[in-house]
Design a protein that fits this description.
This protein has 6 helices and no strands. The protein is mainly alpha-helical. The radius of gyration is 19 Å and the shape is elongated.
């Protein structure tokens, strides 16, 4: 008597019948990086909301990039962070729309971090690096995943 296989084969693609996350570590990496970047953005938003003086050194640099006040930017960062976390969950489920949304949100996050680069360079560069890693992982899904290319 032979043991049963652990995963059944999909007859069309020859790939095991498993969710995309289990087939590709890049998809899992992309979802984790996107969710981590979203968590950083939520933290950034709550700091802007709860501690008004924390980002006040930006005023010394002429306040050139801030169009809204810090409370408004706090809410913007919180909403972007929540959207990134939801997109990261969608990436885990294999949604193409979530991958495209994640790429757009990570790019917007990188541009948004330019406002705080002169004030908090290490935090901004770390957040930008997470966004770059998330974009790279979202774009470079392995070729063996059928229908998963953007």
């Amino acid at each position: 008597m032979q043991p049963e296989p652990l995963a059944s084969n999909d007859s069309a693609s020859g790939q095991p019948d498993r969710p995309p996350v289990e087939r590709s570590h890049w998809v899992a990496f992309a979802g984790i990086m996107l969710m981590l970047s979203g968590l950083f953005d939520i933290i950034n938003g709550f700091v802007a909301l709860l501690d008004n003086g924390y980002y006040s050194t930006t005023y010394e640099h002429g306040n050139r990039l801030l169009i809204l006040n810090y409370d408004a930017w706090g809410w913007v960062w919180i909403f972007v962070g929540i959207a990134q976390i939801l997109a990261g969950l969608g990436v885990f489920m294999g949604s193409r729309f979530a991958r495209i949304t994640g790429i757009v949100l990570a790019g917007a996050c990188m541009v948004g971090q330019l406002m705080f680069l002169s004030t908090f360079p290490l935090w901004s560069v770390a957040t930008m690096a997470l966004c770059v890693l998330a974009i790279y992982a979202l774009v470079s899904v392995p070729r063996h995943l059928p229908g998963e290319r953007v």
